[in-house]
């Protein structure tokens, strides 16, 4: 094991006062010339990954930032490091395990390795990014049962989420707006039942657990409109979202069943929005328009704004109808307070922002129409 080569390469490339290519080239040349240093180089990478975990990052977060800032080769490198480090890590929660499982599935094909110098350069670029990752707000990784009945209702809860996923998948796949609307409305109805049942089951009398937080990626391009959409979905489902623009994610705070719903619905609405935008854009091009970027940006901004309005109205109607249930009002109120307190404790200093770059009238009009077609209709009373 030759640590001196790795140390010299790191001093040149990772700890240099400037980030110029000369420093990277120097470090990569040292590593490329010494195959005996490969094992130590990998070991250091595993340490960088473990360091990211200590600073509050999770596997999906690290892969997302690498994908955002670097290239495919770096994503493959960090994925391999994360999976190699996992057996050495301490036990984590189910969401962490799911991220690792998804990463293993997506990383099943190993890309061909480049020459030693190119490979060493990519490794150093990755390590430099990992070394400089900031500390994030700590997320809960394990959750005790929220109530004694939790084990008995897990299967029915899983079936409910499976039905919701199936309905949203059909809404995404259909080419008929009316069918997509009906399927989305039915999914919303099930989501409401899912959330209300959980609230009743985990009420104060049952000693329910508190809210937690998930990070959900907000990817480029047009990430501001996507963040607004996620915020609207979160608010309609008793959660709060805080967007971290530089790092490309929002942290959504809420009770876990509601967080599952938020992630499902946000993903589905993004798919539906993209499908509708592609069709509308094709029609605009057929009419001779060529301003693709401004059209898309305005389309998604209008879609997010309109969906937010619809979801807020639907959520208010659902809450009004659900209050016929005994003792539901104090339960919902206490959960709302708990979510707000958790959010404010995690993010004591937040700011608001306005949508930028909304300048295309046709894009705004088409985005509003698409949101109307994805309208979440009033849910019937849940007995």
Automatic annotation (TrEMBL):
Q: What region holds the DUF7168 domain?
A: 226-323
- Chain residue ranges for the region called Disordered: 360-383
Q: Where is the DUF2786 domain?
A: 159-198
The UniProt regions of compositional bias labelled Basic and acidic residues, in chain numbering, are: 369-383
Name of the protein in question: Uncharacterized protein
Which species is this UniProt entry from? Streptomyces spinoverrucosus
